[in-house]
Amino acid sequence: MEGLTTAEAKKRLLAVLEKEQGRMAVPAHLGPDSWIVRATMGVTLITAAALVAEGASTLAQSEPVQTRGIGSVVAGGALAAMAIASWLVVWREARLEHRELDERLRAVGRELEGWGGSYAQEQPPQMPTVTTCAVRRDGAWRDVPTLLLVEGDVLGLAGGEATPCAVQQGSTQLEKGECVAGSGGRAAWEARSTPLEQHLRQTAQHHRRAGRSVLQGQMAALSRAAAACAGAVAGAVVVAGAVAWAATGRKAGVEAVLGRAAAVWAGVAVGALWPVLWLAARVLSSAAVVVLFDALQRSKTDYEDLAEIDEFDVDAPPPTKDVRVGLRAVARAARELWTRCDHRNLARSSNLAETLGALTAICSIDKEGTIAEPFCAPEQIVVPASGGCAVLDVEGSTIVDAGWTRFLPALRPLGLACARGAARHPVAAHRRRANLRRLGRTLAAQDSCPCRLGRAVGMAPSDIAEFRVVREIAAFARTDSQPASFSASVVCASGVEPSSLHVLSDGCVDAILGTCIDYFDGSAVRALDDRTLESFRALHENALQQDLQCLAFAYRPLALPAAPPWPAWDGRSTRPVVVDLGPYTYADDTSLPKHLSQIAREERVRSGTAAAATSTLLDCAPAALDRGEEAFLRDALSAQIFLGLVTFTYEPKTDVCDFIEDLDLAGIRFVHFSPANGRQSKSFAERLGLETDWNTCILLSADPAAPGGYVEDHDIKARLPRGIASIRAHLADVDDVPLQVSLFAECTPDATREMISILQDYGDVVCCIGSALNDANTMPFAAADLAVGIEPIPHFNRVAPADALDGANDGSISTAGALVTQYALGAALACIPCPLFLQHDTSLYALMQVIREARRLMAAILQAALLLVHASLALMLINLITTMCLLPPALPAYMVLWIAWIVVPLQAMSLLFAPHDDAIMSTMPSKNHMRFVYFPRFAVYAAVRTAPPIALTVLVYATCLSRLVSLPLGSLSSSFGRSDWLHQNPSQQWALLAAQTSAMVAFVFHCVCISATLMHRTRSLVDLAPVRNMAWIMLSLLSLGLSIAFAVLLLAFGDADISRIPWYSYVLAFAGPVVLLPLQELCKLHDKRRWTRLQKLAKLEFKTKLGLHSPLGEPDEAQRLEKEGGFLNIERWPFGRTAHRRRGLSTSSPPPPFSAAQLHHRPSQSFSISHNSNEHWRSFRADTRHKRTSSSSSVLSSKIPQRLPFASTLFASKARHSPLSNKVSEFSNDSSCASALASVKKVNGNGFLGYPPGGLEISHNGLVLVCEQKSPDVCEYRLRQDSAGVHLGDLLAIGLVSWAAHIFFRGHIILALLPMILFLVRSSLQVYQESLLVVRNVGIQMETVTLAGFRSVQSYDVARIKDVIIHEALHLLEYRYYMAILPLDPQSNIVIMFPHLLPKLNQLLPVFHGSRKLLF
After folding, report:
1. What percent of the chain has pLDDT over 90?
2. Buried-most residue among 274, 622, 958, 999 (CB within 10 A)?
3. Count H helices, E strands: the chain?
């Protein structure tokens, strides 16, 4: 089959792209029909109509002409024009965002149309993150990405490979994803479908629809707050209009009422510009992020910590790269982004800057080439040794084990086999030639050249040069598990007869072991018996479980009667000869493979020489060379000498582990989705630095019977969900562990996409990173809030080898500006939903640095929004106060527009240039379902911050107006309230205008002062001086200059005598910072305290994985508690990860902030022991003086009252009762505790738990636990506090207090001794000891003893006990474990054991195990 030409294939791909265009449309984040746009447009148009009506009425009825009517008409027209213009801008941006993804598809189509058919010469390595296929194009075999395949293509598929699409070979048809049968060699198949068509449909179906971002939610909260205030102001305006109408004796017409109302409403009507300002800020921030990201990728310098930062400080900010981004470049990018559709970075549809600034999770969906190196690195060398084998660790090209030279004789031949191809691969790529890969299916390790191991064992270049490769061999076989292959070289030593040759082989372990009958242990060649063969096979299986890949090495000498007669054996041919070894299986009786050497094995067994090595020297007669080359090589490969194994692993890329650690500091969870099983996934996760202990890995495969699941022998018996379908039910009914783990195994693309959606539903803002050449990544890319495609291998889009090109090509994945090859086009199609692309050699710290910049920009935008809202509310209230005082508005509508549309936006813009906060990357981000939950506090802040400007502006206006109209300040209201505004003379009008202008300039100055305090939310002016922001200095001077110029222009043509303005008006206008700045700093200080507390709790919630390290119990017990233990139904607080906190779902109001100093308890009211049960206790307790009362039981109530502020943080929405398993907990590092657990695990035949005579003592932090077994049925646990009591220091302190009280009360001895009395009473009531008596089949008795000897005893019958559990609670900002009794009656309260002393977990474990052994 000849296949298609590139032109024919390109034509069919373009037809598919044209057919699918138009389906990629996405809804906009902010559209013309959104709530904020409709509300602001409606208010603006109503206010504009009122202003025009008032201005027209004033101009028509006034005598003389009142010039303020002209200002009202102009302001109304400006408001209407702004409303229409703003609506058009929003509509245009929504249209561009709607078409952005479709425009990217069209751009890729244009690139494909202009593609000249240039194919990259270098073939990518064999790894799962690069989905390519051998295709017959233009009469030659090409390596083409699967998304560029079309119907009718001829594919070369090897045995064991999955089909990239529906294929056909004769009458045999295979669907997409089915495995090709065969021994590993490639065969021709015809494609029956075009993968790109289904790929584009799935992308359009699963693309993340526009949702409200964190910043948009906060902006909406601010808008609703402003709307609520505006509603209250509207009512006040109506009252003020009625008062004014009545005050003028009902002479004031509609123009007065409309004028007052419109002047007040103008403060809200200016909000028509807010959507435009938000869109402009979004464009500017996205442009800054894109320019910085491009600059970071172009820069080749390393990421370094600042000079003053200690690199060993775990809380140090992440390293950055000193890259200067010019304002001109940002402005150019912003202009391009504003004027056209951004199909390159999808800045609108992805909401780029906002999403980056709000990220809470980064999901890695593959590893090879993305977070790990594309080529495997050698990890260990395993060589046979006398009595076993030697395992040597390798780092780079060095063997790090001490004394490894003892095994040098065994390592030398293996080193020669490793170094045989050192001169036959490019030095830069350091990989083997792709000949074996082109002929069949290979392992990823077979792409990596092991020549560095040859140098590690001492093979010098001169030693390697002594051997000349005369023939390359590619051998393929099929085992029971999968196709296997290996490569071999026939080498000839220099100065030796050409007939004396050697065969050096390496490849799949099963294939190599199938051709070996002997092994070399460094001293002699020995027979490969069953025991030795099984040991090497066990090493291979263990390496696979540890996520390692193995290559086996073998050797055989050849003695030929003459030089080989075949022409290709001159060493010049690079194309190997293919040898098909066929299928072979393992025999049932001997577990030895039936392969080419099976005859030799059987012959050895029959001759009785199974323990001795046979001669592997192939001495061929002349007739053997006449059978043909392939038959000769089959014989040559049939009985080789096994040399050893080399394990390979994917090492994390440089800085990846540090990047993950810094993500944790920034409050961003790193989640890895692995297609491998749990064991292999944990092995790689451990190299990344992720948590791999306990229940930290969840399997997403749907089949519970699939191999490689939760293994109880090595993993904790955890109540973890199995399969993606059970995740949501687990989150709703059990706990939120799936939201806390950082590792998911056995993942498919569909399961990964669904898990990302679950994370988003629970408030996470997810960034997905993965290979740009893996078409399976497109669905997770489309589902995530942000996707980053990573170049998996360097320079894969070049048309020539990397060492043959200059540095003109930047290696970008994007087709823009690159030499377009099949790989670049395939990456562009696979990464259609990706806004960002990372080159292979770009560190992931580039993503960290743009996150840092995005956080700074988003914080600045939020501060700018606060400034806009504060200014609008202040403008409304200023005019409302003057209106209610029966005065003309202090700021007419056109002045309000000047301030709100010119001055305040300039000041808000200056906040975008605020300097970086050093702690911004250690700040915990907010979840997407969290809004302003403490709105009353922020309302108080707004009132405190705006009160001084409002009061000072009104005072400036009133004092200026009083002096200019020559009226006492107290008579202004009566004079203007009873006067007719339609008949003011020109001097009165100019005096009023001068007073209003003075108020405007004063308010502008106050706005500048307020903006100086909004550089940062919590940092004071001393820590972050505004003079560090040059943009703020320049724009502040510009705002003041323009406002003064505007004031001069307004008064230039009048006769107002501004020299009559009193001096104290200037003081009020410009001395305001004396009052304003301290109040701003007080608000910041108060907010900082709350913010710091919330940050601490958020970090506690993020880093302390509640439930993740819980000791879990037997599966049946866990299921029973899941079903029956849900009566503790209490909502978590806003930072809690609870199933009820989902995006878009309403939740109950949060409880008060956490402020409890300690755990509080209350007596039990319904859980007591029957009278008959007390008789059992008397038989085991001789001391009958103890008073047994159930009313004094100290418990944590299952219905905790809301007056306790910690109530919502004590339990999750569903109680997670976690009984312990019989395994020793990893928390139990105390030796005595470990011995106690070991004794509890194995109860002897007499029923004793194995405690030593006199009891077992476990000490921890001043608490001493004594475990003692009285009889086979009775066990007592006593917990005492050694530090309890009255100490000398306490006596001295209280003595000094008493002496001071004696002096103060002048000899009143009773009052002087009162502190001493209170101290002694308190000390006597201090709990000294708590004990627990457990009686088999009877129950539990608890006793509390104080220092004064007071005792409290409670008894609990076993018939009333449902279970004994260890649970978690938040105590003093620390998660603590406690032991409790669950009653059978769900209406009863749970009972805490040792409630006063609260021992640690290592002391609770033996008590728990012993109690359960006796009770249940």
Report:
1. 17
2. 999
3. 41, 36
pLDDT tens-digit readout, 945-993: 999 999 999 999 999 988 888 888 877 877 776 666 666 778 888 888 8
CB 1395 within 8 A of CB 1326: no
User: Rounded to 5 degrees, what angle do the CA atoms 516, 517, 518 make?
Assistant: 100
Q: In what order do the strands lie in the sheet with 140-145?
A: 140-145, 132-137, 154-158, 186-191, 167-169, 172-174
Tell whether the model's pLDDT for residue 729 goes beyond 80: yes
- The Cα 409–Cα 383 span in angstroms is 10
Q: Scan for tokens 């952005």, then name that residue.
A: 100
Measured N-to-C along each axis, helices 678-688 and 530-545 cross at an angle, to the nearest 10 degrees, of: 60
Given pLDDT bands bounded at 50, 70 and 90, which one contains residue 670?
very high
Q: Helices 214-247 and 35-61: crossing angle, nearest 10°?
A: 30
Query: In the beta sheet, which residues pair with residue 670?
Result: 362
Residue 863 CA to residue 927 CA, distance in Å, equals: 19
Residue that is written with structure tokens 């700093």 in the block: 1081
What pTM, to 2 d.p., does this model score?
0.77
Best CA proximity match to 477, nearest among 160, 947, 921, 904:
160
**Residue 1344, beta-bridge partner list:** 1330, 1352
AA letter at 569: W
How distant, in Å, are the alpha carbons of 12, 138, 180 from that of 193? 11, 20, 17
Rounded Cα–Cα distance for residues 70 and 286 (Å): 41
Taking the C-alpha atoms of residue 1112 and residue 1123, their distance in angstroms, rounded to an integer, is 16
Task: Provide the H-helix boundaries in 1014-1072.
Answer: 1030-1051, 1063-1070
Using only the alpha carbons of the chain, give its radius of gyration. Answer: 40
Report helix, strand and coil shares of the chain as percent, to nearest 5. 45, 15, 40
Q: How is residue 46 written in tokens? A: 């109503």
Digit-coded pLDDT (tens) for 860-912: 998 998 899 889 889 988 988 888 887 888 898 899 999 999 999 999 999 99
Q: Are strands 1327-1335 and 525-527 parallel, antiparallel or unpaired?
A: unpaired
Strand-pairing partners, residue 744, are 673, 698
How far apart are the C-alpha atoms of 721 and 731, rounded to whole Å? 9
**In this predicted structure, what is the pLDDT of residue 1379?**
84
- Spatial CB neighbours of 223, under 8 Å, sequence gap ≥ 6: 36, 39, 271, 274
Instruction: Please write down the HEC assignment for all residues of 184-245.
Output: CEEEEEEECCCHHHHHHHHHHHHCCCCCCCHHHHHHHHHHHHHHHHHHHHHHHHHHHHHHHH
For residue range 202-232, list pLDDT tens digits in order: 888 777 665 666 666 666 666 666 666 666 6
Cα–Cα distance between 919 and 232 in angstroms, integer? 39
CB count within 10 Å of CB 1301 equals: 17
Per-residue pLDDT at 1362 exceeds 90: no
Cα 197 from chain centre: 32
Q: 75 near 69, Cβ under 8 Å?
A: no
Q: CB-side exposure of 358: number of CA atoms within 13 Å?
A: 29
pLDDT tens for 98-115 read 888 888 988 998 888 888
Amino acid 1183: pLDDT: 37
- Residue 460 tokens read as 């010098």
Would you state the pLDDT for residue 711?
A: 55
- The per-residue pLDDT of the chain, averaged, comes to 75
